[in-house]
Design a protein that fits this description.
With 502 residues, the chain is mostly helical. It has one domain. 72% of the residues lie in helices and 1% in strands. The longest helix is centred in the N-terminal third of the chain and has 34 residues. The radius of gyration is 22 Å and the shape is globular.
Amino acid sequence: MEQLDLLVQGFAGALSPINLLWVVVGCLLGTAVGVLPGLGSSMAVALLLPMTFALDPTGAFILFAGVYFGGLFGDSTMAILLNTPGQASAIASTFEGHKMANDGRAPQALATAAIGAFVGGMVATILVVFVSPTLVKLSSSFGPAEFFALALFAFVATSSVVADNVLKGLSSLVVGIGITLVGTDGISGLTRFTLGSPQLFDGISLVTVTVAVLALGEVLFVASRVRRDREDLRVRGGGGRPFLNRRELAEAAPAWGRGTLIGLPFGVIPAGGAEVPTFLAYEAERRLDRRRRIPKFGKGAIRGLAAPEAAGNATTGMAMGALLALGLPVSSTAAIMLAAFGQYGLQPGPLLFENSADLVWPLLASFFLAMIVLLVINLPFAQLWAKLLLIPKPYLYAGITLFCGLGIWATSAAVFDLVLLLAIAVLGFLMRRYDYPVAPLMIGMVLGPLAETSLRDALLSSVGDPRVLVSSPITLVIYGLLLVVIALSVRSAVRKRTRRDL
């Protein structure tokens, strides 16, 4: 009952006119960015990060949360209408969703996606309200050795899951950790990897890296392919009724439930975000469809769209709970939001719930409001978002470039940071060009300092005895799970190579 009382107080804060405005603005921005191919919630949060310092922390994080959820809704719109997913988490929705659109059932497909995302997100948010206090109690038993094990688990799990090539995932992770080593060592006071440049003594800002890699790097990548890619920007399959009839609801409802159950655990597992559960949900429905007398997959099966959508938003909702209670980012967007907490002098974890309850509970209440706002936005107006694609690419990406520069200039007013922005953007372009995943880099940058500090603290407390790293049941459980993840990754790689040889 205590959680319900706190949630009621949170709604009192979230329903204030200014915070309600940030909910709507965040949902609109997230959906708008999501419908633009190649852009996503991570880029939107990265661009907004330097521009929200004037806001109070509660308003800023309500805005970020709206963008986070709205990005998933927008990604699905383009995946269905144009077979162009904005992010990898929407890829599974293209398989059956786009076939529905080509068959003239685009409104029904969009309604299926919107309701599925609403169901998954709402169930996850309800669960977060009741599970977060338990996660907080669990996190209070974590010491330096446990946090190091958790960071190591996030490093390996993210790198091995989100990339087809494990070496590319690990390489991206190493680059992210390497960037965090630049600057002055907080313990010894020595400078590291600064090349003698005083501008690097304070290290490289995470804001600069996120804007460079996710936003400006994407601009360079699109510019390099503008003559090669000739997209068809017409929205097809736009006719029909914008709602589901009773038979379609009965068909989709079980898939929404199964997708939600699949997506929930991945909200607290550092597996790169919603990509893995969406594919698992799609595969589960496809296997069930094979047992039917008349299989429907491959012809626009509504279940093949409903399950991934519910799974994606269920994962995102639980990821917010893991971020608040454990300080554990399970995706690049969550990693950027963790950095935003640092910019406001806040540290997610048990103390956040104790010392900043006036932020946490309005933020949790805003999740419920965001789900409702997104359903209202996407059900009647989903197809209108596709018209954003009619903006000429030179204007669209020129605007993004301008905002990148202005955002970084606003944080430091230093020409050096603009040069650094361009240099890291080239790195982001090369990563896109050669198919290196970005999520491990972001996870490495955010959790790299935590891993280094925790390792040092643990070894200092044990006078250099490395056995302290495996001296508690929690660390043994985490390392056991890590071995399972590695074993599954090796098994998957062997299967892929075997199929290739056949």
